[in-house]
Amino acid sequence: MPANPELLEITTQLLKNCDNGSQALVSLLETVQNQFGYVPPSVVGLIADQAEVSRPEVYNAIELSPSFSLTPSGDHKLFICNADNCCMQGGTELMEHAIHVLGVKPFETTADKKIRLESFQCLGNCSMAPNVMVNGRVHGMMDTKELDKLIEELKQ
Ligand code: FES
User: Fold this and answer.
1) Among 3, 24, 27, 122, which one has the highest count of C-beta atoms within 10 angstroms of its own C-beta?
2) Ligand 1 center to residue 80 CA distance, Å?
3) Model confidence over 42-54: pLDDT tens digits?
4) Residue 83 CA to ligand 1 centre (angstroms)
């Protein structure tokens, strides 16, 4: 797919204020991720040039960090708490269920771009474990039946 000139221009302007060199790679990726919600593959070359690293090194850094994604986020974000209290009270099963129902792994977006699944380390609502958060709203004492209902709502 040809690179979108506007995207390249915006990224070029964005990166002008950033540091150069390999030490700056993560911060360059954060800058781009924050701007677009993901790291468009067509700007990886710009990032590699500024960080003075190879393109595979940029892809490797993206792969290693769940904070970065090469695909746009979904319309909705479904976070499932991955910390001890929630996991011990059903959070692990909720995540397995969501993976199965949505057909994605954590930090991936469904094919219809509707839902991005993410895990999260403690939503601060441990007394209501297990917790999930949808578009910023925490839902406590979740079970797979209620999760199915939430997912159905998000798909509409
Ligand atoms: S452990 Fe899940 S909200 Fe604290």
Assistant:
1) 24
2) 9
3) 999 999 999 999 9
4) 6
